[in-house]
Design brief:
The protein is of the alpha/beta class. The protein has 8 helices and 4 strands. It is globular and about 55 Å long.
Length: 206
């Protein structure tokens, strides 16, 4: 998808719902809110073109983090879920079934959300979700400050340089970026089988 260069502006984040979305109201303040809450948590951001096995890689990393490396928790945060949550803010309806129309509508909604709220908006929502969970943990444990936790956040998946720049700004040395790539023929087959699409529709998406 074509993405224009980032513009430094103070655009509002979508929605006014409670929880992490409500805290994402100001793009300018997102990194400021997180700056004082660094912990020893691990953040892994996956990057890859459409059709790459990003979900499978995320699940495997999630398993290895807990089973092999002994982390208390590993959660997968899908940026595409934020698109579905906020598509109505940009007047896009996403069909529920797996289809070419659903994928096209999701891409359209993602582009419009970035156009309206900034190119890094999906990463900001992920950052705010993590911050919100930290706040919840702090309150549940009656702690006065944020204590280090052995927890890994796996972000599936980053689609542009602005999203990656936001994550680097906030998490710095906590962030690890993993590229996921498959040959074109494999990606075409993945899209076709997963969404029951014809060859022409697959080529349009690729």
């Amino acid at each position: 998808m074509a993405i224009s260069p980032a513009k430094k502006s103070r655009k509002p984040a979508p929605g006014a719902a409670a929880g992490p979305v409500a805290s994402a109201q100001s793009k300018a303040s997102t990194s400021e809110r997180i700056a004082s809450t660094h912990t020893e948590e691990l953040v892994i951001a996956l990057c890859g073109p459409i059709g790459s096995p990003l979900h499978s890689v995320a699940s495997e990393i999630q398993r290895m983090i807990t089973d092999t490396f002994g982390y208390d928790k590993a959660e997968v945060i899908r940026l595409s879920d934020f698109i579905g949550d906020h598509a109505e803010k940009v007047q896009v309806e996403i069909p529920a079934n797996d289809s070419f129309e659903r994928i096209s509508a999701q891409i359209d909604a993602g582009n419009k959300l970035r156009e309206r709220f900034g190119l890094s908006i999906l990463a900001e929502l992920a950052v705010d979700k993590i911050r919100y969970e930290r706040e919840e943990f702090k309150q549940e444990s009656n702690a006065q400050s944020f204590a280090p936790r052995r927890i890994c956040h796996i972000i599936d998946s980053v689609k542009n340089k602005e999203e990656l720049a936001m994550l680097k700004l906030v998490y710095r040395d906590m962030l690890y970026v993993v590229g996921v790539f498959s040959p074109l023929t494999v990606r075409e087959n993945n899209i076709a089988q997963r969404n029951h699409l014809s060859g022409g529709d697959v080529h349009t998406l690729i």
